[in-house]
Known about the structure:
The protein is α+β, with helices and mostly antiparallel strands. It has 3 helices and 6 strands; from the N terminus they run H-H-H-E-E-E-E-E-E. Strands 1, 2, 3, 4, 5 and 6 form a 6-stranded antiparallel sheet that branches.
Amino acid sequence: xxxxxxxxxxxxxxxxxxxxxxxxxxxxxxxxxxxxxxxxxxxxxxxxxxxxxxxxxxxxxxxxxxxxxxxxxxxxxxxxxxxxxxxxxxxxxxxxxxxxxxxxxxxxxxxxxxxxxxxxxxxxxxxxxxxxxxxxxxxxxxxxxxxxxxxxxxxxxxxxxxxxxxxxxxxxxxxxxxxxxxxxxxxxxxxxxxxxxxxxxxxxxxxxxxxx
Length: 212
């Protein structure tokens, strides 16, 4: 008699397991083709605010402001390789990392502080890009080798603590039809601290300003 802890299988045939196939890994598709074409020349395509790319840029910017973490925030910032093509200065890479990007990261942290204690509950409503202020900056202006579209004082509108509030994006410039942040808090500054552009109750009002 078999013990209570044993079992008997009659008429069973052992089958060797076949190879295990893992499901295919789907790579995330970057919605911003302009980032994969940085070696190409600038285009005169008018930037759009209705593309998946622009929405991805806004989400990356808001995520950094909302969380206070600058990880991933560079996605919303004007790309280095594009800046190296645009600027007719001695060392555009050094200017980019030592001034532009450094100021951007400071401004992101300052914007997070403006959200206050209810930052975790703040929710983005939409971005306002004033189409009437969009203009072409020609080669030769602002130490540029090539031209680009620029728009000053766009706004991020969000809801926090039951109230609608907003803050500005001092300047965005375009590369091959896509808007990117180049100055978040201010185009020019006098100190070394982060700057928040016109934090307001309500959606705020975009204002015209100088390009550089």
